[in-house]
Design brief:
homodimer; alpha+beta; seven-stranded mixed β-sheet; six-stranded mixed β-sheet; 8 helices
Chain lengths: 409, 409
């Protein structure tokens, strides 16, 4: 940063919805995203749901000239879907996998076998150390009866904890991603309160894009219209958040979203709209800017609210674990009964064949299937209970620390 | 820290080998460990392999008076097995799960369904901020033909990266745990080189305990003697490591290990010996003590060596993934053939029954089993390939950064 001139940083964030075999017109859209990034020359592009490594490689080849540095975060069987293109060297990376990885949903909702996680990149620009985080939190399936709220809270909490613990040496913290939460949701308030991150949309000096900054809008031809029925304007679930840690200040000069179709074609880039922020970073005299809001007195209320939700989830998870366990035991009993009957027939105790063979075999297959499924779900819910317990305990500890020392963030 | 008097810290570290139904005389030993901790009044006790939460609760109840603060790290289905007892308040915690969690070994080695991880605790003592890490890395199954060396290297690398990224604000870093690596192994050299951690055993001013500081010794009645045949003295795989990050120095005044049986009984505390360190922490004038050894010129060599091993593992994992995939395809083909034959018989194409029913069914069951197993292993090896690739890439990036700026840690 030469003299007192602020550093300007242009950031692009998009959930690319690039799932092989499932996402509509994927290759075409990845091309369009690449064209957009090359044309606009951002400083940083934070992408989510780039599930195919081939798509990443194609983008990398295309963008090599204007974004010489990039990283693809590998995790799980399919990957994390997270990748970053940068004009500036990436010094180091770290990936953190959330403890609740959406595995049970794969079975219940046709979700895929993915490892949801948050990626960290360390980037130095003009002597300023940036900790850049990119993530994709678990989707909400039904807002009215949101059984997964506790899970998203656990993820929001883990994300906040990971950012807090890894950003101590950073000058500026940036977070981009599909957080799958509305701006007023307790998870967002928890994340923002506990990390002190600010929302680029609310802080922006000027805004241009979809109304209310929405990133999932009914006018996008790829969105599921039924899901957006209660929200005629759409919803805002993709964010760019930031804060200055040491003696720097960050201002969001401009925020934009894409609006519907990409230029010159009849389709949008993704089912989400992209978020584009222009940030100005100033070095200031005194240490600790006004942006560190972790001492917010409302923080205790937010953590308490989140903790209550996690407790509700914990009770539900315990019930589910019990039900699945009972189902597994019943299926096992049925199988044992069948085995005894079959054995009886074999050693000639019964006269001829007491059961029709086909239905007998079908029943055995069914019981085996139920046993396997119920056992798997029982294990998943056991893990769920442990994770919710662990988070509840951490929140309790944080509340104790906050209440003892209210002025010490 | 009043005036210039050093802070003295006594640390206890033990792999407790407390696996329900599997570990011999578990409850008795957990009692003995509790007695020892209560009698000696350490400042910190870092325990591994406390797999049963009941054992943790029992210990907590017993130790409430002398260790008022404690934490059990929950992870995976069974848990992480990691817990900590402390005389000083635990301000915050964070758990990081390694990406390679030993799942494939569960199938191949009868290992259990555990989530290997590293736990971080933030503790403030006399105004000094401690980052305390406790972990348990994956075991070595066969030293001569160590197929899992690349996996332990990935874990050692992830551990080092996690410590580096989370300890930036700490005054003192402590790491205790069963690292399952010999002192001269490339994984230990990588961990120490990349974090700057020092080995309490080699730095100790005075030592008392098993020869060479070994923690897995043939004289312990619970150790598997065959595994220790090549090492008549035993092996040292449990460590207490430390470093001062800011203007502090840490010295290890005394290191001890337990030796065989606990006092008054005929059994030892565990199959591992406990490591007990007495550290002296001094505040010093100038910033950055001599303990930060991350600028070691040998570091490039160690990372290069580790990277080579990871590449070897990557090639092996790719081969395995291919073999499992081929096996799955063959099993599927066999099943399809059988289905066609059965269908043929049903619609009356064949004259009577061409196959004996029992062997036909058995073959179908066998093929299904092989299909499931091979598919699962294929998925595991896919994940393995991704993780090894990711680590190799990170190491390559670090090497580039190190070679460009050799004097900048």
């Amino acid at each position: 940063m030469a003299g007192e001139a602020p550093l300007q940083l242009r950031i692009f964030d998009l959930n690319c919805w690039a799932i092989r075999y499932l996402s509509k017109r994927r290759q075409e859209r990845v091309q369009l995203i690449g064209d957009k990034l090359r044309r606009e020359g951002f400083d940083l592009a934070l992408l989510q749901e780039v599930w195919s490594e081939q798509d990443y490689s194609d983008l990398r080849a295309k963008l090599a000239a204007c974004y010489p540095f990039s990283h693809y975060f590998r995790s799980g069987v399919i990957g994390s879907g997270l990748c970053v293109f940068s004009k500036f060297p990436i010094l180091d990376t770290l990936l953190y996998q959330y403890s609740l990885n959406g595995y049970p949903y794969m079975l219940q909702h046709g979700d895929w076998f993915c490892g949801k996680s948050v990626g960290l990149l360390i980037i130095k620009i003009s002597g300023i150390l940036f900790n850049v985080y990119v993530t994709h939190l678990h989707a909400e399936y039904c807002r009215e009866k949101d059984a997964y709220l506790p899970h998203r809270l656990v993820q929001a909490w883990e994300l906040a904890q990971f950012i807090r613990h890894t950003s101590k040496a950073a000058d500026v913290v940036l977070l981009g991603g599909d957080l799958n939460m509305h701006p007023e949701d307790v998870g967002i308030r928890l994340l923002r309160g506990w990390t002190g991150l600010q929302d680029a949309f609310t802080e922006a000096e000027c805004f241009e894009g979809c109304e209310d900054g929405c990133t999932l809008v009914p006018s996008n031809c790829f969105t599921v219209k039924a899901e957006l029925l209660p929200f005629p304007l759409g919803i805002r679930i993709d964010y760019i958040l930031y804060k200055a840690v040491s003696n720097f200040t960050v201002k969001c000069q401009e925020l934009k979203t894409t609006q519907g179709t990409a230029p010159g074609v009849d389709i949008p880039f993704s089912d989400h709209e992209a978020v584009m922020a222009t940030l100005h970073i100033h070095r200031q005299g005194q240490a600790r800017g006004a942006t560190t809001t972790t001492t917010d007195p409302k923080l205790v209320d937010v953590v308490t609210e989140a903790r209550t939700e996690v407790e509700v989830g914990l009770r539900a998870a315990r019930r589910q674990r019990y039900c699945r366990g009972r189902m597994a035991v019943l299926a096992l009993l049925l199988l044992l009964l069948q085995a005894a009957a079959a054995l009886g027939t074999l050693v000639g105790l019964g006269a001829g064949q007491p059961f029709p063979k086909l239905s007998f075999s079908l029943l055995a297959f069914l019981a085996t299937g139920v046993l396997l499924l119920a056992t798997t779900l029982h294990l998943f819910h056991t893990m769920e209970v442990k994770m919710l317990q662990g988070t509840e305990e951490q929140m309790r500890r944080v509340l104790r620390v906050l209440q003892e020392r209210p002025s010490d963030g």
